[in-house]
Please model this.
Amino acid sequence: MKLSKFDGRKSKTSKQKFDTRNMLETINLSKTYISDGVGYDALKNINLQIEQGECAAIIGKSGSGKSTLMHLLACLDLPTTGSVSFEGEDYTLLSERGRDALRNHKFGFVFQQFFLNGRETVFENVVLPMRIRGADQYRLTKDAMDALEAVGLKEMEAKRAKDLSGGEKQRVCIARALVGKPQVVFADEPTGNLDSNTSEAIEDMIFRLNKETGITLIIVTHDEDLARKCNRIIELKDGMIVSEQKEKEI
Model:
């Protein structure tokens, strides 16, 4: 599928050559923030490949660049230099409208903060990405109920989000990330606000969905126990990848 579909115009040609077998790939990816005229290098020449169906953890101390890397991979920000691709196509060349559409159609998100509308029902919170996409009512309802069933909340569709427990709210967030069947789900500290028992249940659910659906899962976390449950660990320090471990090494 050509990314130009999301731009409504002829796509530009990237100077980089990406491997089309990778779901996500970065080449010499760097991000510099400027504050009061002083530059801060949050990421420095990151070269990374994520395959379809992978479950990868990005770890590192605060300030290591892990959240910046996730934002660039997830099309939430643009690099200062370098490129990042989805299925072999450079999406830094898309317009802002095109990037928004790509993100809405192909990516799902689970954050530490729930970002739910407490006054709305579980159903309305879950279908928000589909409404933005302009899906018809049949597809919207079917996909939302499928996602709620996957996280065990099908019977709670009419309940208001403000009346849910922390674990139930995070399950709604996971359902919202799954609705519309994205190819990649990004989870930023997905259990950071939950107690240990609830965290374990949410982690088991996320990894089960990764195995059952083949969805690509990228988790940003400080939690080493959570990271070790992934089949790949990418460690950042001072904006650079300092180590990588794959399943057989973990």
Q: What stands out?
A: The chain has a mean pLDDT of 90. The helical segments are 66-73, 96-106, 122-133, 137-150, 166-178, 196-213, 224-228. The chain has one domain: 3-249. The longest helix spans residues 196-213.
